[in-house]
Design brief:
The chain is mainly alpha-helical. Helix content is 77%, strand content 0%. The protein has helices at residues 4-24, 28-53, 57-86.
């Protein structure tokens, strides 16, 4: 059986990779992927702790996080497509105004 701290180390590593991607990259698609990585890091820790505590609340909460992440991805990609129609770039630095 894999100990709990290995799962927590994995979730921390995934979260940190997502955080570094979010803070250092300027491409909107990669920023959204980094947010998904951070959410998945939290999900790994929630499931691991839920399994360790023999409680289902953490696993149920993961389903809500996945639903929010799916909604966030759909809305975010729609916003990116709308911005891309006005200004053909996906870099954050070049999108400094909301009006085309």
């Amino acid at each position: 059986m894999v100990p709990l701290n290995w799962y927590l180390i994995l979730s921390t590593a995934v979260f940190i990779i997502g955080m570094i991607g979010f803070l250092t990259r300027r491409n909107l698609i990669i920023i959204f992927m980094s947010i998904e990585l951070m959410l998945n890091g939290v999900n790994i820790s929630l499931v691991a702790i839920s399994h360790y505590m023999q409680d289902m609340r953490g696993q149920i909460f993961v389903f809500f996080i996945i639903a929010v992440a799916a909604a966030e991805a759909a809305i975010g990609l729609a916003i990116i497509m709308a911005l891309f129609r006005n200004k053909p770039t996906v870099y954050v630095d070049e999108m400094n105004e909301m009006k085309g």
